[in-house]
Structure formats: C-alpha cells, structure tokens
Specification:
47% helix; 13% strand; seven-stranded mixed beta sheet; membrane; 488 residues; three-stranded mixed beta sheet; 11 helices; elongated
Amino acid sequence: MAPRQLPPLPQYRRDAVTRRLCATTHLDESFARDVRREFTADRLKANGLPLGVNLVALVRHAEAAWRRLELRDRHLSFVLCGVAGALLGAVASLGQGSSAGVLGFLLLLVALFCCGAVLVCRAEHQARQAALEVYRGSRKSADLAPPVAAEVEDRLRELRRANVLPYDASFESTNPFVGSGRKIKEVVWESIDISRAADSPTGGKLTAKPFDAVDLHTYVAEEMADIVGLEGLRAQNRLYVNGLSALHLPDLLPDRLQRPAVRVPRQYVQSAVVQSGAGMRTYLSLEMVGEGGRIVVSMHLRARLLHPRLSWEVAAYVLPPLQHRFGTVGFLPLGGFEYWWSLLRFGMAHTWRGVWGAPGRAARRRGDQARYARELEKTRRSITKQHLAYDYGATDSLRNHCSDWGAMGHTERTDSRDTFLRLQQGVLIATERFLQDHNIDTGDFDRAQQVIATQTYNISGDITGNANIGSNGQINTYGQPGAAQGGN
C-alpha cells in the first residue's frame, strides 16, 4: 500500500537543544564557565551522561566564548591603564597651569573611552554573531568552533556510549540514575513462574532451553527498537556504581587521583546483571530523545531472575524542556537598523563598567582557578596520605541541570506518556517472545501482564509561548525569552 502523499510541515531540528546550549555559551559568561569547569577542568568526579546533547560541540563553543572574554578583558585592562595615565597627566598639567596639556589629556580620555566602547561592542557583536550562526545556521554545530584538546574530545565521545556510571552516594535513596530527570515510575513488576515448559503442538511438553538474565537483557536490548517503533531509541546495558565503591573496581578507577573511566570490560557489566556487587548493579537503559530534544524519556530495567520466578525492576524518568533563558538567542535581532541600534545601546550601557571592571573580572577568573586547583590538590593529598574514602560519583547531568519542569506543556506530557507506555509494552512483548523462544509456558506471564497493564502514571506541568520557525522550516525554540543576556 503506497503511503499517502501529504505536504511536509516544519520540523524541530534534531540537534535543537545542542544548538541552543552552544549559543548560550556565547551570551552567558556564567554558563560558559560552568561548561568548562564540568568537562575540561581537572577533576575527580564522574561526568553525567549527555542525554541527547553533543558535548563535543558544546565544549568547543564554551572554550571559544571563554577565550573571547579573556581577550576582551585583557584589551580593556590596557585601556584602563591608559585612562589612569591620562587622568594623572591631566592632574599634573592642571597643577602646572597648562591648559593645553589638560585639554590634550581630556581628548586622550575621550579617545580611550571610544576605544573601550569599540572593544565592548566588538566582543558583543562577535558573541551575537557566533550565537546566531550556531543557532540558525545549517552547518554542524561542532564545525563552527575550533577543536579543544584531543584527549578531552575523545573522552566526551566515549561518554556518549558509556557502559558504566558512578553516581554520588547521596543519591542512593532517591535517584541512582543521576541526571535522568524526574521520576515518573518506580516499580517491581509482578513475578512470573518460568519453571513450566510450553506445550508441544504435537502433544506433550517441549524441552525448555536454559537461559540467564544476561540472555534476557541482550534480547530485549536488540529487539526493542523494532518492537516499539521509536526511531532513535538507544538501548544499552550500563553498570551503575555507588561513588564510594568505585575504587573497588580497578578498571573503573585505574588511578585514584583521576576521574573514573567511562567504559569498563563487558564482562563486569554482564556479571552485575546476574548478581549485583557491592554498590554495583547493571540496568538495561532505554533512552528516547523526543522531537528536537525537547524531552528525554529514559527507562532503566533490571531482570530479577531467581528460579523459578522472573520479574522486572522498572524505573522511568523524564527530562523536561530547557529553561527559558536558553531561548534568548531566538529573540536576538538578525540585522539591519534594529540589530546595530541594540548593539550601540549595549555598548553605551556597558562600556564604563566593562573598562573599569576588566582587571577585577580577570583577577576573579584567575582566583577561582587557583582556588579550585588548591582544593583539588588538598583532596588528592587526603586520598593518598590520609586514605580518604572519596565519592567519585556524578551528581547530575548538564541536560538535567539546564531543564525546567515548569516548561512541560500538553505536547510534552502526552509525548512522554506515549513513549513510556510504548517502552513498557515493548518490554512485555520482548519478554514474552524471549520466553516463547526458550519453550517456556507463558500462562503465568499472561496473568501478570494484565496486572502490569493497569498501572498508570501522570505528568503535570505548564508551558507558555509560541514556536519560533527559523530557516529551512526548522523550529528552533519555544517558550518565552528569559532576561536578555549580554556577551560579557
């Protein structure tokens, strides 16, 4: 049957969230600092999962934005030195009664002020252009900023396919799946009897095929995408480790003075499926990124196989859309008089503060880095000399840190519900097929499935604002703009 021919509608860009985050690094200094501290700075804590964000592109743009800010403040510091010199010269000329000298130094002050205004406006113009290019342009976001250190980019690429995640011990009682968003379901499904062999079509009983939890996890991971019909569904067995237990797994923490690895040998992951370790359990993680990355639904499953009964441990989470402040770039003027007038107004409002505060901002950056390095070195000494029990677990993901549950609208709630129900039904179908393939009687499974099917969940929240359709029919943003962010 031929598909119905219908006109195409504008679609959200698949990497819309990444582009908005990259653009914000150019407009918000604090966000650029947070990204650099999280992913490029020397640290001991594990990083959270990307969850639909291209971390390589994000770090590249954060580094480019940071270098621009440092260069701007370096130049403005020179301007401030010139201003101080001109003021001293004017005072000296005034004391000597030289009106020509005073006039000359005053003209120099005006020239220096104009120079500072040019530097401030140029930096803001470059920041806005970089933000608009990554947000509205057609090139890949990672190609619009220079690369960072190769080892950093390699680690971030590996993080996308991480098969192990240490989590901070403080989250043990609430959400070991750190950074996954808000919990919408946590349950252990009705257990089923798997001790009886299925009936043979020719009479008698079939011979049951032996299996373990690893076989079941592998089968569900391989078949889920075809069963549920969700394009882009990611399924992976991942070992979740209590951060205080990370040091007991040498392949996870080969060096106690460095951050944990993001991948361990597959055998460790499989071993924790069959039997959990000390603060170590493997879950089959299903991750579905919604349209444009607006929401991320994740389901974490663990087969509990204790012969003769089988059950599933299920935990589901939803990541809501980004906070409104990450939509600021969508409301920047694109050009013409409005763009240049807003840039001029920005320069007039920020030039004096930019020039006067440049040395202080540079000093604060250096001070923050030095303080962070001292604290890290102190922690490392405590680990080596005092044998400190350090928690290497991640505390959050960047995607969750930037999200806002209040931005969940009707579409996001219904899409989340649909995705969750599809995943739930897909796991049930895959489990039934697996048991049938192994000649296990599914009569008890049918009874348990009716109980599971009656379980429901609810997502609540509001969202306001209209969509903003950019070039090539791509919808880039939604929601109301936050407070305007400058490039400083």
